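Tutorial, part two.
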Amino acid sequence: MQRKMGWVLFALLLLAGMPLLCSRSTQAASTAVTVTPSQSDGTVAVTVSDAELKGKEISVICYAPGVSGAYNDLAGNKEAIVYLNQYTINGTLSFNFKVKKQLVPGVYTLVVTSEKGQAASQFRFIPEDKPAPVQTAAPGGNTANPPLSDKSVKAKKKVLPAPKSVKAKSSSRKKIKVTWKKVKGAKGYQIAAATKKKGKYKVKLTVKGGSKKKATLKKMKSGKVYYIKVRAYQLTGKKKTAGKYSKIAKVKVR
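Running the prediction step on this input gives:
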C-alpha cells in the first residue's frame, strides 16, 4: 500500500508539471546501474547496486532520443518519457520494464535518482551505422545539468524524410539530369542508381549543400535504362547520417 501511494504521488507531480527531484541531495552518489536492452521485444533489464541505499526509495525514468536539458525536468521532457516508476532498494535491485512507445534509432537515457544523487546510463535499441556499446555513467552530483554530455542525444535527430518530386531525364548523351525538392535539415544529398528496379542500388553522386535541388550523373551507358532514387543526409561532425530514399524515377540514357 505504501509503495502504491508513493507511485500515485509520483504521477500527480508529473501531471502538475513540477520538478520531482528538486529536494534531492546534489552530492555524488555511488549507485551502480547496469542496463541491458532487448530489441526483440522492447524490454530493458536493469540492475541497481548500492548497499548504502537499503530500504530507501529510488525513482527510475527512461527517456527516448530527443531529451534535452536537466533530466529531472519532467514537464519539459514529457514527450521523451517512455517509462517512469519508483522502487524500494535493498542493496541490489533488479527489474525489467517495457518501453511504452515505438522503438526508434538513437540514444535512450535511463536516470536513477536516490537521496544520494543521480546516475544516468545511455544505451541503444536500434543501431544506426555502427552498434554502440551500452554505456554506464558514473552518477553526477549536479541535478541542474545532465551528469552525461547529451551531445550525442541532440546529434542523433530523427531520420530525414525522403526527398519529394524526384525526376530523372537524359538531356544529353551519357548524362542523366536529376531534380528533387530540398529537405529541411539536410546538409546534402546522395543519388543512387540501378539497372533493375529491385536491383542493387549504388550511390553514384554525393551533392553537398542542403539547398541543392539538382545534379547531373555523367558517364552513364547510352541506350541503358536506369532507376534513380535520392536521399538527404545530415552531419554529426564529419559523419554522414542518411535519411530515407525517395520514390524511384526511371530514365533511358541517350
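The CA atoms of residues 174 and 219 lie 5 Å apart. In part three we will examine how such features are distributed along the chain.
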